[in-house]
Amino acid sequence: MQGLIGEYKEDGTLVKQFQMNLSKYYIYRVYKYDFSGYLFTEE
User: Fold this and answer.
1) How far is CA 23 from CA 5, 28, 35, 39, 41, in A?
2) What is the reported pLDDT for 40?
3) Which domain of life is it from (predicted)?
4) pTM greater than 0.70
5) What is the structure's pLDDT at 38?
């Protein structure tokens, strides 16, 4: 279904599902990063 993105565990269990409003364009790929070390410094 268009506009739905799901995050799954390794065993295929759904963790979280997100829905977005679409116009004539679509999202090709979604990445998940933890952003560790990106614009932040540990003290």
Assistant:
1) 16, 14, 29, 32, 38
2) 65
3) Bacteria
4) no
5) 74
Q: Are the CB atoms for 3 and 21 separated by under 8 Å? A: yes
Residue 2 to residue 15: CA distance in whole angstroms: 19
In the DSSP assignment, the letter for residue 42 is: -
C-beta of residue 7 within 8 angstroms of C-beta of residue 16: yes
DSSP secondary structure code for residue 39 in this structure = S
Closest CA to 15 of 24, 6, 26: 6
The upper half-sphere exposure of residue 19, i.e. CA atoms within 13 Å in the direction of its Cβ, equals 2
